[in-house]
Amino acid sequence: QVQLVEFGGGLVQAGGSLRLSCAASGSIWKMHAMRWYRQAPGKQRELVAGITSDDSTNYADSVKGRFTISRGGAQNTVILQMNSLKSEDTAVYYCNAQVVTTTSIHQSEYWGQGTQVTVSS
Predict the structure, then answer these.
(1) Are 36 and 49 spatial neighbours (Cβ–Cβ below 8 Å)?
(2) pLDDT > 70: percent of the chain
(3) DSSP label at 87?
(4) CA 75 centroid distance within chain
(5) Which pairs from 69-72 meet CB under 8 Å and 24+ separation?
(6) By C-alpha distance, which of 92, 89, 94 is closest to 12?
(7) What does the pLDDT read at residue 73?
(8) Residue 8: its pLDDT value, please?
(9) What are the C-alpha distances in Å from 8 to residues 30, 97, 115?
(10) Model pLDDT for residues 33-60, shown as the tens digit of each residue
(11) HSE value, Cβ hemisphere, 13 Å, CA-based, for 8
(12) Mean pLDDT score across all residues of the chain
């Protein structure tokens, strides 16, 4: 019903920048929030940053001051600008959306396929 597609992962040197984008499409009636999570090898998936329908944002302590989440130009898109990248930021980054679809009154959660971010030291 809802598809999330991520773009922008890759390999970057420590101190560099990357920009991730996520586009949601499908039977979306209302988008409550979009978030970025990440999962490093051998670690649990963790929240990186989120933005709600009223544009409230939140960040993991480890990325505050370095990462910025914002809405993209197109509807139901979100951008994660990552600056001053560190080796510990290496992970697969997943886009997440909390959505009410046109076919259900209940809020559902959807995930993208993930995009690899590798920071070399």
Answers:
(1) yes
(2) 100
(3) G
(4) 15
(5) 69/36, 72/21, 72/23
(6) 89
(7) 85
(8) 95
(9) 25, 18, 7
(10) 999 999 999 999 999 999 999 999 999 9
(11) 18
(12) 96
